[in-house]
Amino acid sequence: MLADDDFRAIYDLLDVGQTVDDAGRAVDCGIRCDKFCCRPDNTTKYLLPGERRFLDAALAARGRAPLACKDLYYFESLDEPPDRACACEPLRELRPFNCRVFPYSPALEGTRVVGLRKSKLQYLAPCWIDEPAPRWRDGAISAWQRVLDDVDGRLLFCRLGALWEWHQASERGEAAGHAVQAVASIDGTDEADTWARAARFFSRTD
Ligand code: SF4
Ligand code: SF4
Fold first, then answer.
1. For residues 96 and 139, what is the distance between their CA atoms, to the nearest angstrom?
2. Ligand minimally distant from the alpha carbon of residue 35
3. How many helices and strands in the chain, by DSSP H and E?
4. How far, CA to CA in Å, does 38 sit from each of 45, 88, 101?
5. What are the φ and ψ backbone dihedral angles of 119, each rounded to 5 degrees?
6. Closest CA to 102 of 23, 187, 39
7. How many CA atoms lie within 13 A of 125 on its CB side?
8. Exposed/middle/buried for 122, CB within 10 Å: 0-12, 13-18, 19+?
9. pLDDT of 133-152, one tens digit each?
10. Ligand 1 in contact with 58 (CB < 6 A)?
11. Over the stretch 17-44, which tens digit does the pLDDT of each residue have?
12. What mean pLDDT do residues 154-179 have?
């Protein structure tokens, strides 16, 4: 599982300005889309294995809790009640990995992260950014590699992939029981299988 030093390093890699204008100035991409991805009704944020512990310790050290986490059984998430601002408002430096790296997934060749790809899923259509700043892109590739080299990190995306397939099956009106079996059958000791499952999750389409 990723340790506190890993999280600090990963956050630093993603802290250099994701989107820039033609002159290289940082752009707040949330202005144009009214923070589409931050709205709880639009997306669910995952926390990486170990990230909740890291965030809880960082919050405790500050003596206040501007954000909270919750357990969604198969993974942990940000708790985002409508009456409370999310992490970015008072404490942007503690926004989690998912928020920092969105909307760019890793492009995988075997076990190597060789680039980034932006999700083209229909429900994310309001997300207008397409190309990250070159320096941020290099950091994001390194960050994704560090996340996926960790077996628990990789297993999270295997589970999210199984849940996605369950969601797709229920949209088609199929019984959902096999999804629980699919999640339970993921074997973390089969390294090739975990990489293949993660790659499938990052390549999903509508
Ligand atoms: S990442 Fe996309 S959806 Fe989120 S604030 Fe930026 S443009 Fe909007
Ligand atoms: S932590 Fe920040 S980036 Fe993440 S959902 Fe909340 S407001 Fe948006």
1. 16
2. 1
3. 9, 5
4. 9, 10, 13
5. -65, 135
6. 39
7. 3
8. exposed
9. 999 999 999 999 999 999 99
10. no
11. 999 998 989 899 999 999 899 888 888 8
12. 84
Q: Is the CB of 155 under 6 A from ligand 2?
A: no
Count Cβ atoms below 10 Å from residue 5 Cβ, excluding itself.
9
Helical pair 134-149 and 4-13, crossing angle rounded to 10 deg = 160
Structure token pair of residue 29: 């991409």
* Tokens, residue 55: 């965030």
Selection from 139, 55, 69 nearest residue 104 by Cα: 139
Residue 128's identity, in one-letter code, is: W
Q: What is the token pair recorded at 163?
A: 């849940």
- The three-state secondary structure class of 15 is coil
Alpha helices in 114-190 (DSSP H): 134-149, 151-171, 177-184
The Cα–Cα gap between 139 and 11 comes to 10
Going along the chain, which residue ranges are E strands? 46-47, 68-71, 76-79, 104-109, 112-118
Q: Is 40 in the pocket of ligand 1 (CB under 6 A)?
A: no
Q: Which amino acid is at 39?
A: R
The two tokens of residue 30 are: 């949330």
